[in-house]
Design goal:
10 strands
Length: 343
């Protein structure tokens, strides 16, 4: 269904501000200019890091396996920020929850990625899709049609629309409406899906930025016959959903490495972007500059200074640090989602 294709980027939409959470830029324009100037000077006087990129098997750490049980579905429904949504958005979400046919809680994944990198592709998933096309790894197309709306075409007969129902720095809820087409089908199949993403921002003891994210999907179909067929192939579709969620996580990690180690490659990709607003190219380069400089500063400071300057460490984190049985992650305050910049 369209939702299965959409999950390859659905982990990232934080478009606009449809909820009640405020949006704000994390850096002023003057700070952006200073960072870009430093980035250009560093690139002019130093050679790029030639460290090999780690293998994909070591990129993503599975904290918890995927689950399709009824108990997991109940917990995921309870975790949805329904009461914080606008009335019309809550009704749209509840319409799917009241009659969903398929449910999948994707694996909880931990990966190293700079928070600015994560936030950028969260705000602009169409840029990620355009990079995939430039890299010739996908024919997927995606267009921004409004502050919180997108349209998508997978290139294999599936098309649809995506709307953000809620977002704040840690939670995103999107609604997908689409039609799945295939040469094997007599006629296209309509489907709807509700997807909820939860993200925690963290850093390791040496200051390496990390995120832990998980997502759940609820899908509904227009007829009993289609629903029955979907349930029969659910073991396969669940594998596809989990794999796509992992692959988008790997993509985020690789883009962080590219921004911090090979920014010239990102600049090259920016020049090949299509199907996005022209301003997105400049925004991608600005994000790259921030990440490149931040990573250089982190390495120069060393782990002790990074830990000393880490903001927002909670009491629970400090308690966990004293308990060797618990993972050593320093939780940080999640960054505010930036507003969408429309021309």
């Amino acid at each position: 269904m369209l939702a299965l294709a959409t999950i390859s980027f659905c982990a990232l939409p934080v478009w606009g501000n449809p909820g009640n959470a405020p949006s704000s830029d994390s850096q002023s324009k003057d700070e952006d200019r200073l960072i870009v100037a430093e980035y250009r000077e560093v690139r002019r006087t130093t050679r790029p890091d030639d460290d090999p990129i780690s293998s994909s098997n070591a990129i993503v750490n599975v904290i918890q396996a995927g689950d399709s049980s009824r108990s997991a579905a109940e917990k995921c429904i309870a975790a949805l920020p329904l009461q914080r949504m606008k009335v019309e958005h809550r009704r749209a979400a509840e319409a799917i929850l009241n009659e969903y046919s398929l449910f999948r809680q994707m694996p909880t994944l931990e990966l190293a990625v700079h928070h600015e990198t994560y936030r950028f592709f969260a705000s602009h998933p169409d840029v990620a899709v355009s990079i995939w096309r430039a890299m010739e790894i996908s024919k997927f197309q995606m267009w921004q049609t409004g502050p919180t709306e997108y349209e998508a075409d997978t290139g294999d007969g599936s098309v649809g629309a995506i709307e953000v129902l809620w977002h704040d720095p840690s939670e995103i809820v999107i609604l997908c409406r689409g039609v799945y087409g295939s040469p094997l089908l007599i006629k296209p199949i309509a489907a709807k899906a509700l997807i909820h993403l939860h993200t925690e921002y963290a850093q390791d003891d040496d200051g390496t930025p990390k995120i832990v994210h998980k997502a759940s999907l609820f899908a509904t179909f227009p007829s009993n016959a289609v629903e029955t067929a979907a349930k029969l192939i659910s073991p396969i579709s669940n594998m596809v959903i989990d794999r796509n969620f992992r692959e988008i996580s790997v993509f985020l990690h690789m883009m962080w490495l590219a921004m911090s180690r090979q920014p010239g490659w990102v600049e090259h990709m920016a020049g090949q972007l299509d199907g996005v607003l022209e301003i997105r190219k400049e925004q991608l380069l600005t994000c790259t500059a921030k990440v490149f400089v931040a990573e250089r500063r982190r390495k120069e400071q060393g782990p002790l200074q990074v830990r000393a300057q880490s903001p927002g460490q909670s009491r629970e984190t400090k308690a966990n640090a004293a308990d060797p049985s618990k993972p050593s992650l320093s939780r940080t305050t999640p960054p505010a989602a930036p507003p969408v910049m429309m021309k």
